[in-house]
Amino acid sequence: MEQEIHTRVDAIRRELESAALERWGRAPEIIAVSKTVEAPKVNLLKGSGILRLGENRVQEIMEKLPYLNSSFQIDLIGRLQNNKVKYIIDKVGMIQSLDRMSLAQEIDRRAQQHGLRMPVLVQVNIGAEPQKGGVTVEETISFARMAAGLPGLEIRGLMAVMPDLDDDALLRPYFTKMRSLFDRLREENIAGTRIEELSMGMSGDYLLAAQEGATHVRIGSAIFGSRTAAAPKQQHEDTLKGDIDTWVF
């Protein structure tokens, strides 16, 4: 199993390099989306060169963290309720789903309590889809300016979940638009920010993301295999209600 996972990672890296190196000078970094994957299997990634994991649920992070190899950084990539921030503020390396000012203020408050400055990505609702979180394209720059004034967080860039489209020709413009927005944000030189990460692309569309300038791609099933069932503890009612786990990585 370990060799199989490493072989998949190597193949994905080669694809990313082929898609991105000539145009962008670098391939995107892989964030391994480990939601519903049990810790022993996740730990098989050690040695593959992947340093970051993406998790959607606060409770799953809390359950798995004691069993994960300490070399991994965990990124919270799912939608986050304000009242759940306290559980993970000192457990994750980045929150990729900052999508409203009340959440920014809560992250700031909790981070300052722990003496932290939490790296965050602003989530953009690039497809203007009501079922997804994220600020609008039009609000992104102004939102980043406001959030950048909070001392307990540091804006590192943007994240997006693309519309569920099977046609690459229809999907590509969303990636292009995200890269353009990322470049605009970087050019703003907003004080207190360090704009260097554009997290977009998942198992079904990571090559498009690489071609259009993603710096990070979030890949789960292409590494770990198809998810046919939730991890055992996730089959029970989540006692930390409200975390959304509906995206396919």
Descriptive notes:
The structure is a single chain. The chain contains nine helices and eight strands. Strands 7-6-5-4-3-2-1-8 form an eight-stranded parallel β-sheet. It has helices spanning 2-24, 39-42, 58-64, 85-88, 101-113, 140-148, 168-188, 206-211, 221-224, and strands spanning 29-33, 52-55, 73-76, 94-98, 118-124, 153-160, 197-199, 216-219. The protein is α/β, with parallel strands linked by helices. Mean pLDDT is 92; it is low at 229-249.
Quick summary:
This protein is α/β, with parallel strands linked by helices and 249 residues long. It is built from 9 helices and 8 strands.
The amount of helix comes to: 25-40%
Poorly predicted residue ranges: 229-249
Sheet of most strands: 8 strands, parallel
Order of helices and strands: HEHEHEHEHEHEHEHEH
Radius of gyration: 17 Å
| Number of helices, where a helix is a run of at least 4 consecutive DSSP H or I residues | 9
Secondary structure: number of strands:
8
What is the overall silhouette? globular
The secondary structure category is alpha/beta
Main-sheet strand order equals: 7-6-5-4-3-2-1-8
**Span between N and C termini?**
20 Å
Q: What is the fold's blueprint, element by element?
A:
Blueprint lengths: L1 H23 L4 E5 L5 H4 L9 E4 L2 H7 L8 E4 L8 H4 L5 E5 L2 H13 L4 E7 L15 H9 L4 E8 L7 H21 L8 E3 L6 H6 L4 E4 L1 H4 L25
Parallel strand pairs: 1-2, 1-8, 2-3, 3-4, 4-5, 5-6, 6-7
Properties at a glance:
16% strand; 8-stranded parallel β-sheet; alpha/beta; disordered C terminus; 37% helix; 249 residues; 8 strands
